[in-house]
Design a protein that fits this description.
The chain is mainly alpha-helical and 250 residues long. It is 76% helix and 0% strand. The chain is built from 13 helices and no strands. Helix 2 packs parallel to helix 7 and helix 7 runs antiparallel to helix 10.
Length: 250
């Protein structure tokens, strides 16, 4: 039966679960990517330091590449069983050693989002680090030499010389990671399944659940199309803002 825009209207006006999924998807992606950019920039800056680069760079870069060769499903299942498990997980083992309360990812409003966030940051920060490391390595060394002559400290060099020169690289890294984080599925589906309740249910989990568990294919398709429009608006707005910022600086 053709119902026109019925599914779209119902999703936006009569389904708080879908609104929650949209908000959670956007907020989670934004928070995760900002944390990854901050940590990734600091790690990349340390790796680009001449002394660190000559001693440890090759080892650290090899270590960073490990997440790229492991499937997200495998990493997610490892976190679920070996780290977050209440009885046998390493996390609760060390929390017990320090007489701290247990962490149960399946209980409470915040445990599950925090657990997924930590896993996502650890898994995806290396990607951001490599992009920013390439950007920092491409900066003309004469800029840093001039700063050294003027007596610029390590911290001031990071904020006054390095950061302004790689702003376009940071924008690119943010855009790539934000789009990727918006469509995250594997980690949430394996570790929490969108629960407890539907606290960690994002737009992808929502569409899969309604399409393949409740067999409401039209409803799932409508939710995915709305999500696509939201993503397009967010990305275009971000790119427009970044161009405006560069225009103002120019």
């Amino acid at each position: 039966i053709f119902i026109g825009l019925g599914n779209y209207i119902d999703l936006l006006t009569n389904n708080p679960r879908y609104i929650h999924a949209l908000v959670f998807t956007i907020v989670f992606a934004a928070v995760a990517v900002v944390i990854e950019i901050v940590i990734g920039f600091f790690v990349a800056y340390v790796l680009a330091d001449e002394e660190v680069n000559s001693k440890f760079s090759s080892f650290i870069r090899t270590l960073i590449l490990i997440p790229f060769v492991i499937a997200p499903v495998v990493v997610s299942y490892t976190y679920k069983t070996l780290i977050y498990d209440v009885t046998f997980g390493y996390l609760n083992y060390f929390l017990k050693l320090f007489h701290l309360p247990f962490f149960d990812i399946s209980q409470g409003m915040y445990n599950a989002p925090i657990g997924i966030l930590i896993m996502e940051v650890i898994l995806r920060t290396p990607f951001v680090t490599l992009i920013l490391y390439a950007g920092i390595s491409s900066i003309d060394s004469s800029i840093f030499d001039a700063g050294a002559i003027d007596g610029v400290s390590w911290w001031r060099r990071m904020f006054l010389l390095t950061l302004p020169n790689i702003k376009p690289i940071i924008v690119v890294a943010f855009a790539f990671r934000f789009m990727d984080a918006l469509k995250m599925f594997d980690e949430i589906y394996v570790v929490t399944g969108g629960g407890p309740g539907y606290i960690t249910e994002n737009a992808s989990i929502f569409a899969v659940r309604y399409g393949f568990e409740y067999f409401r294919m039209g409803y799932a398709a409508a939710s995915s199309f709305i999500f696509l429009l939201v993503v397009l608006i967010l990305i275009l707005s971000f790119l427009k803002w970044s161009k405006f910022e560069r225009g103002v600086e120019g």
